[in-house]
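Structure tokens please, single chain.
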Amino acid sequence: MKALLFTALATAAAISPLAAQTTGYTTFIRQTQQSTGVVWDMPFTALTGSSASQLALETNGALFQLYAVKTSGNVSYLLDQKLVGAYVPTATVTITSQDPYTKVTRTRADKPFTVNINVAGLVSGTTTSGGTVIPDAAKKVLVQRFTTSYPAGGTLTMAQATAGTPKSTSYIQTNGLTATTYPVTGLTPAAGQLATKVSGEEWYLVHALADSTIVQTQIASGYIQILPVPSGSISGLANGDTIRFKAPTVTLPLQDLYPRSDTWLQVYPGNPVLGTVGTTVPGSMLVLDQEKADTRTLTLTNWDSVFKTDGVYTLELLTKTVFGTERLSYMTITVDRTLNVQATMVDY
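Here you go.
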């Protein structure tokens, strides 16, 4: 029997050279027979399409690998692979979070996410109707969870992210959807690092198990990007200070702002009350819409216009993301610009 191959050059972010252009690459599907080790390469030129496999699908299955080879330099990229056989299961991995960003699934270190693994093709029992013993490879799949922090450069390849020992392993023994929700990331903080400041990736790999003729083979994968929780402070004033004349220069050190976020400093009369909408300090609004978290420092001068009258005021540093509006820092100050003149009248 022959398998119908569906090919699509929809590459992962790690294969950015191919994603950026469709020329300059030779593409082919490699079929490796699991019983005999026979290999057959089938080149193709269309970006999408379907074709019957060139070799018959043997009892123990075949591994199909989608490759792209750069014509200059002969650098090859493995884009995808599927193990197909009479008792080989299939799987898909999708990960969802509260962030609707579409280029990559991402979330914050303190927020939940859900891993959805859909498995098909598993069989139950110990033998077939013909008396053939059903191998464990046909009855369950292995799931591995990897958690890897970003290096100094800030990026990871799939090979880097899934190297070493998995954080956890488990098995799925039923067909259909298995959904697991994690309340926060499993990334491990570095020495002296807060758990809210971790950043990296979590990868979930699904493997068909090895048996006497087939080696353990990855059949599905998915990952989520973990970003740190933002923080910030107000420098140049201290809680309880009094402004008597001109408001001093204020700096706002902002760390790990979420890639899509609005951050600003606001002022309102009275003591701090969460949820109060105040006046935005001129020059303090920072709008981000990018792929990475960011660290900035804003400097504010000539912002006296926000104080209409003397009295007690609250300064509040806020950031708004898909997770809601959150307070990064706040303080209470007093504005007292009344000039008192004391003099003595002398009559000569």
